[in-house]
Amino acid sequence: MSGLRERKKQATREALRAAALRLALERGPDEVRVEDIAAAAGVSPRTYNNYFASKEQAIVAAVTAEREARVAAALADRPAVRLADAVTEAVVSQYTGEHDPAALLLITTRPALREVFVGAAAAMEHPLTAAIAHRLATTDPYTAPVLAASVVAAVQVALRQWLRPPTPSGLLVPTGSLPDLLRAALAPLAPALDAAEAR
After folding, report:
1. With contact defined as beta carbons under 8 Å apart, do 130 and 139 qualify?
2. CA gyration radius for the chain?
3. Which CATH number fits domain 66-198: 1.20.120, 1.10.357, 2.70.98, 1.10.10?
């Protein structure tokens, strides 16, 4: 029964994400209300609030959905690779994969959506902690959580650099290649990841 309940919750989450993005692309995010998203997904606003705290979260979730689990899985798929390299490539692969260009443009050109997009990286901390702990075969309560939190912070620094505020003309000026920025932001963590792996 719990499996069915989880599948229903996942289906509701997916319907809300899809409705939020579709409506935001059709009308513009300022013209979309939580009530509109809930109605388009066939649920009540109260049910909507069980899944997302704002319309911005639902819109961004349509692009970032399940990224945290995919990053952890990508790390687990690289057991023979140095931990620092495995973490970097797992992150880069999930942030530079296929995205709907219209959705990404919508998110990157709206300050509230940009901030939620950057903040969404925090969701990978818990699964990444578990993946790093498994990889290091450690029960130490500090190493994996500190490393995972550091990875999240580095990703957020790279995303903020990439999504610098618009110029006075209103144009967003990406500041280089996102894969390169992610690699540069994660590079200072390599010694800590190497040291943890060497224990």
Report:
1. no
2. 18
3. 1.10.357
CB 179 within 8 A of CB 187: no
pLDDT of residue 165: 63
- Which residue from 18, 3, 127 is spatially nearest to 67, judged by alpha carbons? 127
Contacts by 179-184, CB closer than 8 A, 24 or more apart? 179/92, 179/95, 179/96, 182/88, 182/91, 182/92, 182/95, 182/96, 182/154, 182/155, 182/158, 183/88, 183/92, 184/158
CA separation, residue 19 to residues 23, 27, 61, 177 (Å): 6, 12, 11, 30
pLDDT for the residue numbered 104: 84
Task: Report domain extents, the chain.
Answer: 2-61, 66-198
Its pTM stands at 0.86
The answer to whether residues 37 and 48 touch, using CB atoms and an 8 Å cutoff, is yes
Asked if residues 193 and 84 have their Cβ atoms less than 8 Å apart, the reply is: yes
Distance between the two ends of the chain, CA-based, in angstroms?
43
Contact between 91 and 71 under an 8 Å Cβ cutoff? The reply is yes
Segment among 71-85, 116-130, 169-183 with least mean pLDDT = 169-183
CATH class as words, domain 2-61: mainly alpha
| Of 151 and 106, more confident | 151
As a whole number, the mean pLDDT across the chain is: 90
